[in-house]
Amino acid sequence: MDNCIFCKIIAGSIPCAKVYEDEWVLAFDDIHPVAPVHVVIVPKEHVPTLLDVRGEKTSILPPLVHAIQEVTRIKGIDQRGFKTVINCNKEGGQVIFHLHVHVVGGGKIRVADM
């Protein structure tokens, strides 16, 4: 998508603090963290919302789960604990309409701010 900020980050036209990347997903530090660790994981394929993950698009789920596991290990919160959040649609708090998972941890987590 031409005007999707996450697609621009994936393409490299907007810089990010990369945490993890493979052929399916990119994970980077959130620019407005709500906790000491706050990473956003996005599929490289543009999928607008969680509700759009159906049919062949369900193949993105295992790479997303794997990325969550890797990010929590890299950030040192895998054993301490963390939260994952997927906002869906406007009333669910989704601001950027490219599916993404927030991984937050490392201390007090203000989920209400997400």
Beta strand %: 15-25%
The level of helicity is 10-25%
- Structural shape: globular
The CATH C-level class name? Alpha Beta
- N- and C-termini, Cα separation: 24 Å
CATH architecture: 2-Layer Sandwich
The CATH homologous superfamily is termed HIT-like
Largest β-sheet summary = 5 strands, antiparallel
Radius of gyration: 13 Å
Number of strands: 5
Question: Which structural category fits the helices and strands?
Answer: alpha+beta
Helix count, DSSP H or I runs of 4 or more residues = 2
Question: What is the H/E order?
Answer: HEEEHEE
- Overall structural domain count: 1
CATH topology term: HIT family, subunit A
User: Could you name the ranges where pLDDT drops below 50 across 5 or more consecutive residues?
Assistant: none
Mean pLDDT: 94
The largest beta-sheet arranges its strands as: 1-2-3-5-4
Mind sketching the topology for me?
Blueprint: H1 5-11, E1 18-21, E2 25-29, E3 37-43, H2 61-74, E4 82-85, E5 101-105
Antiparallel strand pairs: 1-2, 2-3, 3-5, 4-5
Can you give keywords for this protein?
18% helix, 5-stranded antiparallel beta sheet, 114 residues, single chain, alpha+beta
